[in-house]
Automatic annotation (TrEMBL):
<dbReference type="Pfam" id="PF06050">
    <property type="entry name" value="HGD-D"/>
</dbReference>
<dbReference type="GO" id="GO:0016836">
    <property type="term" value="F:hydro-lyase activity"/>
</dbReference>
<comment type="similarity">
    <text>Belongs to the FldB/FldC dehydratase alpha/beta subunit family.</text>
</comment>
<dbReference type="InterPro" id="IPR010327">
    <property type="entry name" value="FldB/FldC_alpha/beta"/>
</dbReference>
<protein>
    <recommendedName>
        <fullName>2-hydroxyacyl-CoA dehydratase</fullName>
    </recommendedName>
</protein>
Length: 334
């Protein structure tokens, strides 16, 4: 556990021959791995200066995206050879446009070339065909960037590794639901996998799976609402006597919930098409079912929504629990 926590606390910069920073859970990291590059997911910093992000994105946008832009401009992530953004929410899309335009008009900022992966989530065959075409385009762009074609064998191997990663996390999640991994530590267990090479993360997960983990005290909570790219809110809830045993955001359980279960580009396209369900891209009924599933292991439902993240409060209706809306990024007014 200590090694995973250490990686998570010092996520940036990461050193590799070719580093691809990415924003959003719809970026197909398997393709980046198959191209021989390191996918590194970019997190914001609630304690950092958001002013540069505010200047170019405006204060009305989700502060997580504003923080990521501010950190990009400050060079906090170290060397990023390229940047990939998914259209998982409006904030990510606006971040993409801002970085692309700033790179054009302010080359002195040194921002990396940015690429949009436009994955859609409608349950139609036409959507699958659209996503497959987008992933094929991304595959070719990775070839152009790295000079290395992504063969079918490379892709199959990368998918197998990332699916093993998801399987190990799913297995360890059982220990977490039993109260043997604190919620803030779980963010580190998952989050380390967003910056490490998949093989390195697999090694640490296998090691953790052999450890006899002690049980933590606290009222068991399922956390719904906004995503959490840092442990700030989790630690505040833990300090108040809560033990978070599950959540429905893509820096936690949703990051590994759905596997590819295939070895082709089509299987990969379908995995990202049906990934979720996130608050921004799913129906209220889908989210309600996910909350009901999570509450099987919890005593209390807590809903949390950041300022500028407008989707989550729709999920709170009809549920009993504690709900915190319009919260500052990384903060919760308990």
């Amino acid at each position: 556990m200590r090694a995973l926590l250490s990686v998570y606390e010092a996520r940036y910069p990461r050193e590799a021959e070719f580093v691809v920073g990415y924003v959003g859970a719809d970026v197909p990291v398997e393709l980046i791995t198959a191209a021989g590059a390191l996918p590194v997911r970019l997190a914001g910093d609630p304690d950092g200066d958001l002013s540069a992000g505010d200047t170019y994105l405006g204060r009305g946008l989700d502060p997580m995206a504003r923080s990521v832009l501010a950190r990009l401009l400050a060079g906090d992530y170290g060397r990023l050879d390229k940047l990939v953004v998914s259209r998982d929410c409006e904030a990510s899309l606006r971040l993409f446009y801002a970085v692309r335009e700033l790179r054009r008009i302010e080359p002195a900022f040194g921002l990396p070339e940015v690429y949009l992966v436009d994955v859609l989530h409608l349950p139609h065959r036409t959507t699958t065909a659209y996503n497959l075409a987008r992933l094929e385009q991304f595959r070719q762009r990775l070839r152009d960037w790295t000079g290395r074609p992504v063969s079918d064998a490379d892709l199959a191997a990368a998918i197998a590794s990332h699916d093993e990663q998801r399987a190990l996390l799913s297995s360890l999640a059982a220990a977490r639901r039993e109260g043997r991994i604190a919620g803030s530590d779980w963010l580190a267990v998952v989050g380390a996998g967003t910056v490490l090479p998949v093989a390195a993360h697999l090694s640490l997960l296998r090691e953790l799976s052999t450890v006899d983990l002690p049980e933590h005290a606290g009222k068991r909570v399922f956390l719904t609402g906004s995503s959490h790219d840092t442990p700030h809110v989790y630690r505040a809830l833990e300090s108040a006597g809560h033990l978070i045993v599950g959540e429905d955001h893509d820096w936690g359980d949703l990051w590994y919930r759905r596997r590819v279960d295939g070895h082709t580009l089509l299987a990969l396209a379908e995995r990202y098409q049906y990934n979720g369900p996130t608050a921004q891209r799913s129906t209220v009924d889908e989210r309600r079912a996910l909350i009901a599933e999570g509450m099987r292991h919890a005593e209390l439902l807590i809903g949390y929504a950041r300022r500028g993240d407008e989707a989550p409060p729709w999920d709170f209706a009809g549920h009993e629990g504690l709900f915190y809306e319009r919260q500052d990024y990384g903060r919760i007014a308990l």
